[in-house]
Structures are given as C-alpha cells and as structure tokens.
Design a protein that fits this description.
The chain is mainly alpha-helical. It has one domain. The chain has five helices and two strands. Strands 1-2 form a two-stranded antiparallel ribbon. Helix 1 packs antiparallel against helix 4 and helix 2 packs antiparallel against helix 3.
Length: 165
C-alpha cells in the first residue's frame, strides 16, 4: 500500500471519528447515555467497514454490490444499538432516548460517507444535523400545547410526550 493510500485512509477514519465525536459531545452535554465515545466509535466502525470493502486506490467498479450489502448490514445493526437507548415509562406515558437513537443512526451514515471519502456531503449533513440538535428542541417546545402541571396521567409535556432534548 502506497503512502498516499495510508494518508487517504487516515483522513477518512479521522474525519469519521471527528464527526462522530462532535455529535456525541452534544449528547454528552445533554447527559444522555450514548456520548462522545459511542458516537465516535460508531462512525469509525462504519467508515472502516466501507474502507475494507472499497479501499482507496483500488478499482471500485465491481464492488458497489458489496458496498450495498455493507450499508444494509450497518443500518440493521445500528437499529439494534439505537433501540438500546430508547426507554419507555408507562406510568408517565413518556418515551425517552429517541433523539439519541436517531443521532446514532445518522452518525453511522456519516461514518459510511466518510469511509467513501464524501467529505462535502458529510460536512453539509453535519451542519444540518447540528442545527436540528441545537434548535429543534426549542422549536418543538415553542409549538407544543401547554398542560397544567397538576394534570394526572400525563407526562410533563402532555399525553403524547415523545420528545427528548
């Protein structure tokens, strides 16, 4: 393997870790169970899977079918990891962890894109994802109907409280 291929692989894996860590930092700052390490490792692992199937400097034209199977496997497996952070409290009719599960899923896709060397789509998706994480909760709360604090049988934000910061 040539030196330039090592650099390309290092750049792709490093970008995946960086992107995953940024998303994980948001989750850590909101005291969620999956943080910097989890998100960085998810992105790193998915980027590595892509690089193993489609290494830089090798003719890729016959490997797209294999890449498609890798992506399908990643999305299935990540679904189980995301399901592990979703919690349901039937007493309060409250579900938590949905946003963290979604960030794990998006992080895996960003890792795949990093592994393919698609840096511009990664940066654009990271920008949009960050905007959703930073402002989405505030936007939801601004439009959510208010319920009295003493209302029984409801979560803190109403009967269909499915949100998470």
């Amino acid at each position: 393997m040539a030196t330039d291929e090592w650099l390309v692989i290092s750049l792709r894996l490093g970008m995946a870790v960086f992107v995953g860590a940024l998303i994980g930092l948001n989750r850590d700052l909101h005291r969620k169970p999956a943080g910097v390490r989890t998100h960085a490792l998810v992105a790193l692992g998915t980027a590595l899977m892509v690089i193993v199937v489609m290494p830089p400097g090798v003719d890729d034209s016959h490997r797209y079918d294999a890449l498609s199977r890798v992506i399908q496997g990643v999305l299935t497996g990540i679904g189980f990891l995301g399901a592990g952070v979703i919690l349901r409290n039937p007493n309060k009719q409250h579900i938590s962890g949905l946003t963290t599960a979604a960030t794990i899923w998006v992080t895996s896709l960003l890792g795949i894109a990093c592994g393919m060397g698609l840096y511009l789509p990664v940066l654009i998706a990271l920008l949009f994802g960050s905007l959703v994480l930073l402002f989405g909760g505030r936007l939801e709360r601004a439009f959510r109907p208010r319920t009295p604090k003493g209302a029984q049988g409801q979560g803190q934000d109403g009967p269909n409280d499915l949100s998470e910061s």
